[in-house]
Amino acid sequence: MKIRSIPHLISQGFISFFRNGAMTTASIAVLIFCMILPGTFFLLIDNIDRFLEGIDDLYVINAYVMNGAGEEDIRGIEEQISKIEHVSAYTQVTSDEGLEALKERAPSIKEILNRYDSETNPVPHTFKVEFSDFDEVHSIIRDLNAITGIDEVKSQISVYEGANRLKSLFRVIGIWIMVILFVVAILVIMNTVKLTVYSRRQEIAIMRYIGATSAFVIAPFIVEGVIIGIVSAVIALGIQFCLYEITVDMVGTYGGTAILGSFVNDYLVIIALAFLAIGIFSGVVASSICVKKHLNV
User: Fold this and answer.
1) What is the distance between the alpha carbons of residues 172 and 166, in angstroms, rounded to a whole number?
2) Which of 112, 136, 155 is where one domain is finished?
3) Using one digit for the tens of pLDDT, what is the confidence trace for 256-287?
4) pLDDT exceeds cutoff 70 at 39
5) What CA–CA distance (Å, rounded) separates 288 from 223?
6) Claim to verify: residue 92 and residue 105 sit in the same structural domain
7) Which of 162, 216, 220, 269 is the residue whose CA sits 20 to 30 A from 127?
8) CA-CA distance, 92 to 129, in Å (whole number)?
9) Distance CA 204, CA 194 (A)
10) Claim to verify: residue 138 and residue 237 sit in the same structural domain
11) How far is residue 47's CA from residue 296's CA, in Å, rounded to a whole number?
């Protein structure tokens, strides 16, 4: 196939694209679903990760000391915490520091909190125990609960585990939906290309008779599949953007900060490339299979 014939082959691909209106539309519709659904699950999973990153003290376990514990008791507790395996660091928050921090976090009840002094302060002395591996959290919590003088142990592990279960569920559902829709898209595109092959059967026979190469015969059908994939990717990207922006407006902000990430800044490039890859790959594969099956080239 000569370079000067490439514009002709591309133009033939566009002619084929517009020739089979109904089947081409069906191919594009299926491919759009094949892109949008996995894209939606990807956005869900990534925003769950962003949600986890925004949680205060996600990698911190709060160990509250019993009321009435003296300085010697607290030093003994600190010594035992320092010996716990998998603890990366820890800090102490005294009762007075905890009360002041509570006043800053809850200004609406600051007047009530101001009534407490060092003798009546209800906020317990707290050890903030840091870790780096969530797999060891339960072990650390068990060791902290075993320390005499520790009244209560709290962590965000339940939030983390719940979010991870959601992520795993979304990931499995997304993969299966994408596989099913991908197979359907391949079949629909194959039928679209098959119609083009049938409508051009006499032209193809003449080209073979005068010695046209297999590449010259196949190229327009591959181009048609690629065009279907690219058009689908562009439309799917526009729909995905609109759906995401609607969701962002519905979810709103928390503390003046957007809860969901920015589509343009955080996701546009990666989703655009993914959609193009899915579309072009689907078009090329479907066209190649169909051409080889019906033209024996």
Assistant:
1) 10
2) 155
3) 556 788 888 889 999 999 999 999 988 888 88
4) yes
5) 10
6) yes
7) 162
8) 9
9) 13
10) no
11) 48
Report the predicted TM-score, pTM, of the whole model to 2 decimal places.
0.72
Whether 44 and 67 map to the same domain: the answer is no
In this structure, the answer to whether residues 225 and 284 fall within a common structural domain is yes
Domain count, the chain: 2
With tokens 């840091």, the residue in question is 130
Strands 126-130 and 89-93: antiparallel
Runs of H (alpha helix) within the chain = 6-19, 21-53, 71-82, 95-105, 110-113, 137-145, 157-199, 201-209, 214-251, 268-295
What DSSP state is assigned to residue 58?
Answer: T
CA dist 187 → 42, 191, 217, 228, 289 (Å): 25, 6, 21, 13, 10
With tokens 């650390």, the residue in question is 140
pLDDT digits (tens, 9 = 90+) for 146-187: 999 999 999 888 888 888 888 888 888 888 888 888 888 888
